[in-house]
Amino acid sequence: MRVLYFQPSASFGGAERQAAQAIPLLPRHGIEPVPIVGPGREIVDFLDDAGVDEFVFLPDLPRDRKAPRGALRRAALLGGYVRSFFHAVDELANTARVRRCELIFASRPFAWVTAGLVGARLGLPVVWRAGTTFEHWTQPAALGLFARSRPPRAMVYTSAAVERSIGPLVPAPSFVVHNGVDVGRFDGRVVPS
Q1: Which residues contact 190 (CB under 8 A, 6 or more apart)?
Q2: For the chain: N or C, fewer Cβ within 10 A?
Q3: Helix 138-149 vs helix 109-122: angle between axes, to the nearest 10 degrees?
Q4: Three-state SS for 97?
């Protein structure tokens, strides 16, 4: 199965680390990932180091660093989302068609909306991954409206707490898949290089 894996992010936090660790392992399970990442470069470096040489990098995706924002910064961020949205929709649709993807896996709300529209356009199932709760009171209402019009085929949550927060808004089967941890990094017998 070929899966378009859309992981937009300017930073390299939990969702990006999980994607960067999972993507190289998916072929062992019969899944051929087609990653689309950006605008941050850290995930690109990690994928390169892991031997993932085929991915799409979108440098013009929104640069949301999740820091406190005033009204001007929020307006600029919204403008960035709108500007990059149409390019991202076109890029996802073209990549999914050319690579003959059978499913779209989307992490983060921007990816959910983008993938939802592309999935509907191409007739592809979409799975959303959620790893955190909302930052602003308007997000649950907007997500609920979008999820009713373009529901994902399934939701993957990183914890039961996130499922309790977002699950009631999304009419889709849900699964809790906890983030993996490389326990070897914490082995006191191993000397870091």
Answers
A1: 184
A2: C
A3: 10
A4: helix
